[in-house]
Specification:
The chain has helices at 17-26, 64-81, 105-121, and strands spanning 28-32, 35-41, 50-55, 91-97. By secondary structure, the protein is an alpha+beta fold. The chain has one domain: Ribosomal Protein S5, domain 2 (2-Layer Sandwich), CATH 3.30.230. It has a four-stranded mixed beta sheet with strand order 1-2-4-3, sandwiched between helices. Helix 2 links the parallel strand 3 and strand 4 (91-97). The chain is globular, with a radius of gyration of 14 Å. The mean pLDDT is 93.
């Protein structure tokens, strides 16, 4: 049995404006406060099984340092739990932080686990 690689390659990051627009117009969402997952199964040319993005609103966190820290926490939590996802063919997803206070890693990890479990049940 091969050991899973816990990496989050650059090729799996969501960058295209067209994909992001279609994700928010037609995607479904799962919320476990303070995290929200917006996802949409769709076909895209990249070879990765998923494209993922992370977002923190500037309205709630004015300083870029705080937004970047929260995004770093979300990326790390996703990187450790990505092998638990049971995805349809190819999926585009965006993780959004909706809280008003700076979270700690345990909170982000636990809420992301709840969302991933609900995603797998759908």
């Amino acid at each position: 049995m091969t050991k899973p690689r816990y990496t989050l390659p650059r090729s799996s990051s969501l960058k295209r404006k067209l994909l992001i627009d279609s994700l928010f117009s037609r995607g479904r969402s799962i919320v476990s406060f303070p995290l929200r997952l917006v996802y949409l199964p769709m076909d895209y040319p990249e070879g990765s099984p998923y494209l993922v993005g992370f977002s923190v609103p500037k309205k709630k966190f004015k300083r870029a340092v705080h937004r970047n820290r929260i995004k770093r926490l979300m990326r790390e939590s996703f990187r450790l739990q990505q092998h638990q996802l049971r995805l349809p063919d190819k999926t585009v997803m965006m993780w959004i932080f909706m809280g008003k206070e700076m979270p700690d890693f345990d909170l982000v990890y636990d809420k992301m686990t709840l969302i991933i479990n609900e995603f797998n049940d759908r």
